[in-house]
Design brief:
Shape: elongated
Mean pLDDT: 91
CATH class of the domain at 287-521: Alpha Beta
Largest sheet: 6 strands, mixed
Low-confidence stretches: 535-541
CATH architecture of the domain at 287-521: 3-Layer(aba) Sandwich
């Protein structure tokens, strides 16, 4: 594999890469603003300039020093090359670029939402001056509302054009452009348009300074207080990798987590802003026919157990309605328990919501697919189908349930609901008239008002487990926040009902699944846990 020397350290890379990307992959930081691996290279910010010594084409053993600084983001890495990013000449350029960028930049770090994760702030500390030599009045630019979720602080912008390139190359919608010249140059939307494409929130993530900010997150929390937990999106079948950022038991924002095979660096706005159900309109106490019941966890478990066993003497009188918003481990435990009580119990799956067709985003120039917004909104249909296939026997479609109830065949229905109410109408129709209706729900929905017993359960952010996306990719996620008071995960409820030792352990359930032939779950592990927001790391000069 090719190797180059960067500031006395060996950097190894594979394939064709630019100097900057090879260094970043190796864990070495070269300051940069305009460069982003997912976007075209423009080499406009100039802070990544480095000195290089490159092998002589006529005599590869001899190194030839390039007389001028070159942009590391745009210069291919060559085997045997020497790169100097902390030489006096390179550092002088970095300091000059920083001074230029800060000429008109406001000193509002204390009130800026980007403080704590701002490249400009970090590089200013590393390469900037303690005081400005610029004595003239700063150029003042307006704050602009440019979209449903995004606000633009023009005076903070350093014209890296990442956002412009994103709307042209990733979303393909082209709402943003550079207007004006010189110190009047600004990023803005075209007249009569707004930044409202389904991927618009990504421009907030890729902005290296505090110019593009999230309206929903604005002034709500300092980023250094936030903890970051790796997770999987519950909002679609795509299996997008995300990070849940939270503090003191409350979620404040969701960010994309890089996965080259799934969502790369991006997520849709539906994923980014769809999490408010975690803290709103939650079912917090057991209920019967919509009336809250003063029951302890043990009492509610006991009542659930008794209610299912009441009609279990008649084989096939019970049905379990699984939901593709639960983890595979939870559905497996639920099905195992119901079949333990009634070996001929029926199993079915609530209808996953499909919203039109997949929306495919392409780079208008290359035609390459940049992101796919999945029409199917259930995150774990494939996992549910595997559970049904493994526990074959009395498995039916949801549409057939009402007929079995009318025929007197089914007396007890246990329903696992989703947090969005996607299947509320079809579920209420399917189980109407059943003798005993048992519901596990996050929300006080219509089914709860009809239920003989309804138990409150956790959202995905309050538990661990695995989802399987549309392509069969099994991914684990970790609990981010503690469960809401008086709520439990669906898995822990069935863990107790099956009298398994200790506390609920998804890994132990995956081992059980593997032993029963579902071997694809044996090697699934939780992603690495990040306790704090990852701030940039620098090498001391």
């Amino acid at each position: 594999m090719p190797t180059m020397d960067v500031d006395g350290k060996k950097v190894v890379w594979d394939g064709k890469k630019m100097i900057l990307q090879a260094c970043l992959d190796a864990g070495m930081e070269i300051p940069h603003y305009c460069y982003h691996q997912g976007l075209s290279i423009v080499a406009s910010c100039r802070i990544c300039l480095v000195e290089i010594e490159s092998p002589d084409p006529k005599d590869p053993a001899k190194l030839v020093k390039v007389p001028k600084l070159v942009p590391s983001c745009q210069t291919p890495a060559v085997d045997g090359m020497k790169v100097h990013s902390i030489s006096p000449k390179s550092v002088a350029n970095q300091k000059a670029v920083m001074e230029f960028l800060l000429l008109n930049h406001p000193l509002d770090c204390p009130v800026c939402d980007q403080a704590g994760e701002c490249h400009l702030q970090d590089y200013s500390y590393q390469y900037g001056r303690s005081e400005s030599r610029f004595d003239e009045d700063k150029a003042k630019k307006p704050k602009k509302d440019i979209g449903k979720h995004v606000v633009l602080y023009s005076d903070r912008c350093i014209m890296c054009t990442r956002c412009v390139r994103f709307t042209r190359e990733i979303s393909g919608t082209g709402e943003l452009a550079v207007f004006g010249r010189g110190h009047r140059e600004e990023i803005d939307v075209f007249q009569g348009r707004s930044l409202d494409n389904p991927l618009s929130g990504n421009v907030i993530d890729i902005c290296p300074v505090g110019a593009l900010l999230d309206k929903d997150f604005l002034f709500t929390q300092r980023v250094w207080f936030l903890k970051k937990t790796p997770s999987i999106s519950p909002f679609s079948s795509g299996g997008e990798n995300i990070s849940i950022e939270h503090n003191q038991g409350r979620v404040y924002r969701i960010k994309p987590r890089f996965n080259a095979d799934v969502n790369k660096w991006w997520i849709s706005d539906d994923i980014r802003y769809g999490w408010d159900f975690i803290h709103n309109n939650r079912l917090q106490t057991p209920a019967a026919k919509g009336v809250p019941q003063e029951l302890s966890a043990a009492q509610s478990i006991g009542q659930l157990d008794q209610a299912v066993k009441k009609n279990a003497a008649t084989p096939g009188a019970t049905i379990l309605v699984l939901n593709a918003f639960d983890t595979t481990e939870e559905m497996f435990l639920a099905a195992q328990w119901i079949r333990r009580i009634d070996p001929q119990a029926w199993l079915t799956l609530a209808e996953p919501k499909i919203d039109g067709e997949d929306q495919v985003f392409k780079n208008p120039t290359t035609g390459a697919v940049t992101y796919t917004l999945r029409a199917e909104k259930a995150p774990n249909r494939r996992g549910a189908e595997k559970v049904l296939a493994k526990l074959a026997g009395n498995v039916c479609k949801l549409a057939d349930v009402q007929g079995k109830i009318k025929a007197g065949q089914i007396k007890t229905a246990m329903v696992l609901t989703d947090p969005f109410g996607h299947a509320d109408a079809s579920l209420q129709t399917a189980v109407a008239g059943v003798d005993t209706l048992l519901v596990l729900s996050t929300r006080p929905d219509g089914l709860v008002s009809q239920a003989s017993l309804a138990l409150p359960v956790c959202t995905w952010a309050e538990k661990s487990g695995v989802f399987e996306n549309y392509s069969g990719l099994i991914q684990a996620f970790k609990q981010a926040i503690a469960p809401l008071e008086n709520t439990r995960s669906t898995g822990s409820i069935f863990w107790d009902l099956m009298d398994l030792a200790g506390t609920y352990d998804p890994a132990a359930v995956r081992r059980m699944m593997s032993e029963l032939g579902m071997t694809e779950y044996a090697a699934v592990a939780l992603p690495e846990h990040h306790e704090k927001i990852e701030l940039m790391q620098f090498t001391d000069l």
